[in-house]
Amino acid sequence: MTTYRSPFPGLDAPASGPGGAPEGLKPIWIEHPDLEAMGRRGFRRFRNEFDREPEGIWMAPGRANLNGEHIDFLGGRCLPMALPYGTLVAAAPRTDGLLRMRTLEPTLDSGIVEVPVDSIVPGTPEGWTGYVAGALWALRIAAESHPELAVPENFGADLLIRSTLPVGGGLSSSAALECAAILAFVGMITGPRDLDDDTRAVLAHACMMAEVQVVGAATGGLDQTASLRSLPGHVLSLDCRDFSITHHPIAPLVEGHRLVGVDTSTPHWLGGDDFSSRRKDAEAAARFLGAERLRDLLPESPDAEDVEAVLARWDAADPRPADLDGRDVAGCRRRLRHALTEMLRSERIDALLRHGAPDSVPGGAPGELGRILTEGHASMRDDAEASFATADLIVETALAHSAAGARLIGGGFGGSVLALLPMNKVDAVVQAVDRAVLAEGLPRPRFLCIEASAPGAQLCRNCD
């Protein structure tokens, strides 16, 4: 992964270094990748690695989510956008039922890893190869109802993988890997073609099943949908009750502002117990209240009174652990509150995207979005209990230096912060955050220029 000087004027000035932080250090920015150049290098590297040419190179992006964390699996609305950062897969087909894979991510690279296709089952293989192998496993299942995606007998592949996303950075590096892999498999099987949204929806669902069943991460489809079904310059409004989507231009929502991602350098993994425990708490609360999905407890256009009514109903019922599959009652109520208020925040942003902000709203649409982002962080911290010290410090520092809003994004327990910054304050906020984290002796953050970008696709067939 490359780093570079800031894309914003003035950001290369030395930091003043209060609070014990070193003088003169400049914030670290992660460059938007030059995909054309990466394609050429990937083509040559594949040839050297596998002694033949790839059939093509495919890329799938990560995502940033304005709102909707921990609610995709509960039927809520999520508001992601695809990023210019993502994962590239160079691939060529095999006919011996073998996957041969290598990642160029230094922390994961152990050379070529071989996985027989017929050995892929839930839980196997483990580690990063499970995301790739799981995508092929899930594609076979999807092809049962979509024969145009049928996987030939003894199909296998050589794959070389390169990511421009921070691994475990809360920007969906795992979904980008699954989606790039499944696009490569489909491209090799069916040949070059444009994928319509219906096909992309099928592939997104297959990638979700790969992550849930093969990898064992309790995800709900948000990340894969954003990676495969977004549009450049648009926010994807995703209703997770039926996975219907609407695209909205992002420009009016952030007018005069810049979205900046802050990689906390604290990796997370959604296959761990922390994330799955939060999901189990929320699902136990839904079952106790008689709902298959928590979103069904709210009306189509909910408001704060509707949220309070559900919480009052919970309190009046006075559940016991035995009513919640043995789970902690207070914890389940906090997850319930997070999910309901997060759903309400999503509907508020969706309304801003559809109708704009009334003249009476302070700061217009960007001001309201900023307030919603900050409310969302407080909920991730206090009710989802998924935040952590570095993220809290970054949010607090950004807000203290004129950020319109900021929040933890991704599943939590590590990952990234998304901040909405006035254009003329980007310099000051980024430097202040960098200094504050350094002063606390925490891992150095890296900054990303967040722009709504294109969905996954084939990058090239002959990249030389």
From TrEMBL:
GO biological process: galactose metabolic process
Domain Galactokinase N-terminal stretches: 45-93
Xref: SUPFAM superfamilies: GHMP Kinase, C-terminal domain, Ribosomal protein S5 domain 2-like
Segments forming domain GHMP kinase C-terminal: 364-435
Nucleotide-binding in keyword set: yes
Region Disordered: start-end pairs: 1-24
GO function terms (MF aspect): ATP binding; galactokinase activity
Gene Ontology annotations for the cellular component aspect, listed alphabetically: cytosol
GHMP kinase N-terminal domain: residues covered: 133-228
Pfam families recorded: GalKase_gal_bdg, GHMP_kinases_C, GHMP_kinases_N
Keyword line: ATP-binding, Carbohydrate metabolism, Galactose metabolism, Kinase, Nucleotide-binding, Transferase
Cell wall biogenesis/degradation found in the keyword field: no
Family: Belongs to the GHMP kinase family. GalK subfamily.
Descriptive protein name: Galactokinase
Native organism: Kocuria soli
